[in-house]
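quick one before i forget lol
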Amino acid sequence: MEIAGPGLFGGKSCNVQISAHPGPTALARGGARADVVDFAPVPATRATAVACGAIAARGVEHLFAALGGLGLHDGVLVTIDADELPILDGAAAAWCRALLALGAPPAPPRLVVAREGEIAIRGSVYRFAPADAPSVRVAIDFGDLPVARDAAWGGDPADFVSRIAPARTFARADEIDALAAAGLSATVPPSSVVLLAPSGLLAGGAPAAADEPARHKLLDLVGDLFLHGGPPRGLVDARRPGHAATHEAVAAARREGILIAAGKDRAPR
């Protein structure tokens, strides 16, 4: 399956080949390949960027959200030819369609919430609790803007595809000039972005629902958790999550034993 399109920043085109692959889901470029869980997050503005050896990529969060929502920790190889993935529909629906066409079976998450805990990273707060299946909740705060504040997902892939994956990326209307100056691509379809304005939500394509920004924040969180082997089995409840904060919170939760590798929670035989 081939996908192509411009990135959100800079507008450079990226061609993506999605294929079946034995072993852990991996990312490849220029003949180099590495498993997703071997990548590390690197600093980026309004996106998740990762690097491992010779491979670096920005804007991976929507692809990773589709992989995480579908539970595709194994069996997928994503080959790219540029350093920023295409924005496509501004969400994860296009990625989900491509991945579902591949037919790879889901696999359990690599992470488990071992105990209750809370991690605060600047203005973001992440609460964790054990549960029998992945469960993700978010709460956002945009002041007086007319948006719903909460979204939740209980780990069901079909629900992710139908309700979470179509939620588009968004920006505040008063940020547009600054984003354009930072390299926001003029080639991005208006239908792929929702604008948050005092008068309501503005979109060039399908009308935006009041909870679409919250669902997109949840989508981003699922993608960021996938980089670490998640979403974990258990509850992740994030208040005002952000890309960098999520990666820092997961690292802290692992150091404190709140998140552990799957299998380590089982009693020895």
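fyi DSSP finds six helices and 18 strands in the chain.
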